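To assess whether the prediction recovers the assembly geometry, we first specified each molecular entity separately, as shown.
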Amino acid sequence: LSRKISDSAIRRLSFYLRILEQSGDEGVRTVSSRDLAKRIGTTAAQVRKDLSLFGSFGKRGLGYSVTKLAESIRAILGLDRRWRVALVGAGRIGAALFDHEGLRIRGFDFVAVLDADPEKVGRRWRNLKVRDTSELPEVVREHAVDIVILAVPAYAAAGVMDLAEEAGIRAVLNFAPTTLRVSEDVTVRDVNMVMELEALSFALSHGEDRE
Amino acid sequence: LSRKISDSAIRRLSFYLRILEQSGDEGVRTVSSRDLAKRIGTTAAQVRKDLSLFGSFGKRGLGYSVTKLAESIRAILGLDRRWRVALVGAGRIGAALFDHEGLRIRGFDFVAVLDADPEKVGRRWRNLKVRDTSELPEVVREHAVDIVILAVPAYAAAGVMDLAEEAGIRAVLNFAPTTLRVSEDVTVRDVNMVMELEALSFALSHGEDRE
DNA sequence: AGGTGTGAACACTTTCACAGCA
DNA sequence: TGCTGTGAAAGTGTTCACACCT
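The predicted structure of the complete assembly is given in tokenized form:
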């Protein structure tokens, strides 16, 4: 796959997959691009374009087989395997993620939990013992970690990121409100609750006088 | 403000503000578009363009006054006031948000917590008593709620959204993995951890064979 | 010189419209 | 007929380049 796929296209693929799985459970056998579009609030053309980036999955005049398309999207997104995740930061957010059933269902397994607080190190989190954050490189090697979730305070984020890079990690989900400077081949995704609320604040402040 | 402002521009404004506040704390008096750009990983032209959407805040040859620009961005984002937030869903994610200091600092106050579980209703969350989700419309009126945070399971999200719309809520932060169909003048922002991890999964699956 | 503000060029995304297969 | 797959058109967002102010 050589051409660049936009972020929004990938996000929509995730959506399509969710809809397809739901439809499958409801016993639906085929869907059209229009069906999918309506469910996630986009256009039929957009759906077809997104899918066409990766191949031809439908039948003209008929639509898409729910199970086959779901299978194809799973393959595209790399969800036809399981991923090994290390959680750094055993605080509130970390705990919420750790307990999130949805992650395991979708193929993401927590294989390690780390924290910098000596008070927390050594404690049991379900079947895992909390390790010290400084041990991240060893932990990554020991458990063949694919993805690191950063749920630490902002001031600690850059340091952990350095450890993660040192350990050869190529994908990071960052909950700390900082922009992490990383090398070319590391993918970082930021989740920032404050920023989302600020966007709502903007919408509320400027939407009043619309239309 | 009549023209449309892109989502990414607003997200960047939030970033600029964070950098400015940090710089201010460090005693810096002025910054250039290049300084800001470097810090958040974009271009100087982008920074100037973003700001120019809302006015002229800089001095040619000099740059921007840290305090004045911060003040201006706060006004743009509507952060020159406090917002009243109701949290629906007193689970793990809800708790993590409720305890998130960053939200209060940025002007977002939790004025109510609601849950559908009778077991949880009536309990104290710091200074608040958990109310039943069905009471959302009254709660919104009583506390003049501006923003609803939806931290409920997917199956419950649509129902709560209906109550929120009925109550006249115009801004929702949604953590449930569902696309909420809402009327034109309601702004919904979705935060979806699974989707973020799927994007990482995609990057890992397709990045291997790069350069 | 140094750095902003901005029209114009460019790149990317979405929508349109239709040929072509079931 | 119904619906996909896709070039071409339209629309958005980003980068360039430079006039202009301090």
